[in-house]
Amino acid sequence: MENSILITKINNYLARYRLFVEQENRANRYNINIRAESFFIPLLKILFDCPDLENLNIQDKNFPGLDLGDHKRKVAVQITSDKSSKKIEKTLQTFYVYKLYKEYDRLIFFILLDKQKTYSSKKITNLIKTIRKKIGLFSLMLTRKL
Predict the structure, then answer these.
(1) Would you say 62 and 77 are in contact if contact means Cβ atoms under 8 Å apart?
(2) What is the C-alpha to C-alpha distance for residues 82 and 109, in angstroms, rounded to an integer?
(3) CA dist 45 to 26, 49, 51, 95, 121, Å?
(4) Secondary structure of residue 11 in the 3-state scheme
(5) What are the residue ranges in the chain where pLDDT is below 50?
(6) What is the domain range of residue 56?
(7) Listed residue (36, 81, 38, 72) closest to 56, CA to CA
(8) How many domains, the chain?
(9) pTM reported for the whole predicted model
(10) Which of 93, 108, 116 is nearest to 141 (CA)?
C-alpha cells in the first residue's frame, strides 16, 4: 500500500478514535481512557523510538503518575483526555514526589483530545526546574491532538 494512502487511513482512524473518546467522556464513561493506555503502545513505540514501552499499570496497578514507560530509553508517558494545567501539575508533582526522575528523564503527555494552546503556569515551570536540578537534563513534551 502506498505511504500516502496508509497515512490517510491512519489519520482517519485516529480522528474517529478522538471523537469516540470525546463522546465517552461527555457521557461520564472514562474506561476508554484506561483502554487507551495499552491501545496506543504499538504506535507510541514507533513514534518515540521506545521499543520496550510497556503499560506500567499492568505491572503495578495504578502506577503513580504515569501510564507507560520504557526503562531502557528512560521515557515515561502519561495518556490522558484531561488537557488542563492542573493535570500537568499533578502529574509533575507525582513524578517529583515519587522520585520517578531517577528512572525516567523524558516525560511525554499524550493528550487524547485537543490540548490547550499554552501551559504557562508558574507551578509547572517551578516543578520542571526542580526536577532538572535533580537530574540535570529533563525533557517534557505535550503532544498535539490526534
Answers:
(1) no
(2) 10
(3) 29, 5, 5, 21, 30
(4) helix
(5) 145-146
(6) 3-142
(7) 38
(8) 1
(9) 0.80
(10) 108
